Amino acid sequence: MNNGFFEKSKKISNNFLQSIVFIDDKAYSDANSQNPNHDFDAQKVSMAFAKEEKVCGIYKPKSKSDINNFKSITKKADIIILDWQIILSDDEIDDPNADAPSEDPRGQYTIEILKNIVKDNESLKLIVVYTGETDLMEITNEISENLLVINPNFKQDLCEVSSPNIKILVRAKSSVNDDEVDNKFNHLHLNDKIIKYKDLPLFVLDEFTKMTSGLLSNFALLSLTTIRDNSNKILSLFSKELDSAFLSHKSFLPNTHDAQDLLLDIMKDSIADLLLYNKTHKLIDKNFIEEWLEININDEEHPILNGKGKPLNPKETFERDKTNLINLLFSEETRVDKKFNSVFQLLIENKEKRDEFLKYLYLNNTSLFLNTTNHENIDQINKEFAKLTHHKSLFLPQNIEPKLTLGTILKSTKRDESYFLCIQQKCDSVRLKNGEERKFLFLPLTITTDKFDLITPNGIKLKLDKKSFSIRTIKFTCSNDDGVIKGILNDNSKFIFNQIYSEEHDENFEWVLDLKDLHSQRIVTNFASILSRIGLDESEWLRRWGN
Questions:
Q1: d(Cα 530, Cα 200) in Å, to the nearest integer?
Q2: Which of 45, 42, 67 is nearest to 54 (CA)?
Q3: CA separation for the pair 227, 103 (Å, rounded)
Q4: How far, CA to CA in Å, does 246 sit from each of 231, 241, 243?
């Protein structure tokens, strides 16, 4: 793949990648062993990655406890490279009189490590099973069978098992010198799956870049690299010499717990300012987008749809190409309706049909930036981007209890379709005493298939009921010393908020998500403006002339 976008993406990935972890039972072994297929030359590997300025950790497990220790290490590494056949010194049959195990023990520890990585893991991971075995397809099958039990989203390809965020590649060690051609898999047409030590750094970089070569993912990688490169600067700003000033500030506050919130705000702003001054967001400029379009967009005929998404005429289409998308994205016209009309005036001559199509694009113009073969994914893509912009709880650890505050969305355990948005201000949601009762205000949300205001993590669309008489008050009791109402984990791994009158009403509330602060505050502000409307009887003649 030799595209400008991919090459720039590879540079960004290369700057991000730092740590590569190898686990191989033949590491540091005698280079003159009798089994060159399984040998692992740690010196050559480490030198190959050192030339690319990468930190390479090579571990040789000797016992089952080593395998357990390495499980946590693999979760921290950027790239993980595992041997398939790992033989440990403490491998032995507990009962010497028992029959030998019927299953081939090769791969058991690698599978164990892979399962540990995959379980409850939402992070991006590239894993290479780097083996001296010859049956690469059988290894791939075994990995796929074991991981599908944990995660049904895994898919199998040629010497590859992958999910949306994890890619596992099965590759063979080479048994010849760097200047020789290794044709041991010629009969299987898999010679391209043989990787020499010297080629490993470029191979893992290319494969990682294939996973991250997108506009948003490149921005995220560049942002993370910028933060990491400036970590010492951040640490120097948050110097221990300022502790006394922080404590002085805390002592002045009526509610001293607010000092911790200030630290969060300072850190958040510091990181945002760091990215701003380093012009990280400038990465996605016109040239970068043009190169993205070049690699991702085909020039093709698209149907002309009406406002409901139905073809106006199955035989009538317009030419969607990279040029008209560039014109749309970088038009200097500030009015959106005029911008779209001017671009599509050249593509759809009939004004009536063009107006109908523009009604469709008003809510669905994501289709313009996808090839027709991917149009079935439009709704899901829009939902995921909406979550990224609205959901605060994307980073909430699964074992941390959510707290009830402004922006928390709950679902009734009595009526599955009843959702509620907490609009209690933060200052009235905290500093509760253990055992204290507190009423919380909620706006109802209803499930809809039409226009909607919010979307849940599993894609359910919700519409706010903004009528003043629909507001609901629910009373809860603080049952901890942290001063907040917390959800309680039930047997179904759901966090439940138990209201005081749960037995009387046979109803409690399941935590769904937390909205970002500004979105929550906007909803409250809009609701307050509805409450402040003035109903006035006046002369209709006077009112109409005034409007």
A1: 62
A2: 45
A3: 48
A4: 21, 10, 5
The closest of 156, 174, 166 to 126, measured between CA atoms, is 166
Q: Is the pLDDT of residue 45 over 80?
A: yes
CA distance 305 to 307: 7
Distance set, CA 295 to CA 177, 210, 327, 538 (Å): 36, 12, 18, 62
* pLDDT, tens digit, 9 for 90 and up, residues 98-129: 444 445 567 899 999 999 999 877 789 999 99
Of 29, 84, 24, which is closest to residue 57 (Cα–Cα)?
Answer: 24
What Cα–Cα distance (Å) separates residue 274 from each residue in 236, 279, 280, 285, 388? 14, 9, 9, 19, 21
Strands 437-447 and 461-464: antiparallel
pLDDT tens figures, 54-98: 999 999 998 889 998 888 888 889 999 999 999 887 765 444 444
How far is residue 211 from each of residues 9, 204, 462, 538, measured CA to CA in Å?
Answer: 10, 11, 32, 64
Give the angle subtended at the CA of 71 by the CAs of 66 and 76, to the nearest 5°: 125
| C-alpha of 369 from chain center | 21
pTM of the predicted model, to two decimals?
0.88
Q: Tell me how far apart the alpha carbons of residues 103 and 111 are, in angstroms, rounded to a whole number.
A: 14
Q: Are the beta carbons of 280 and 222 closer than 8 angstroms?
A: yes
Mean pLDDT of 428-441: 93
Q: Please report, for residues 8, 92, 131, 532, the alpha-carbon distance to residue 476 in angstroms, rounded to integers and kept in the order given.
A: 53, 57, 58, 28
Amino acid symbol at 190: L
C-beta of residue 41 within 8 angstroms of C-beta of residue 26: no
Whole-angstrom distance, CA of residue 99 vs CA of residue 116: 29
Q: For residue 211, how many C-alpha atoms fall within 13 Å in the half-sphere facing its CB? A: 24
Tokens of 23: 């686990």
Of 439, 437, 459, residue with least CA distance to 448: 459
**146 pLDDT exceeds 80?**
yes
Give pLDDT tens digits for 229-259.
999 999 999 999 999 999 999 999 888 888 8
The one-letter amino acid code at 360 reads: Y
Instruction: Count Cβ atoms below 10 Å from residue 123 Cβ, excluding itself.
Output: 8
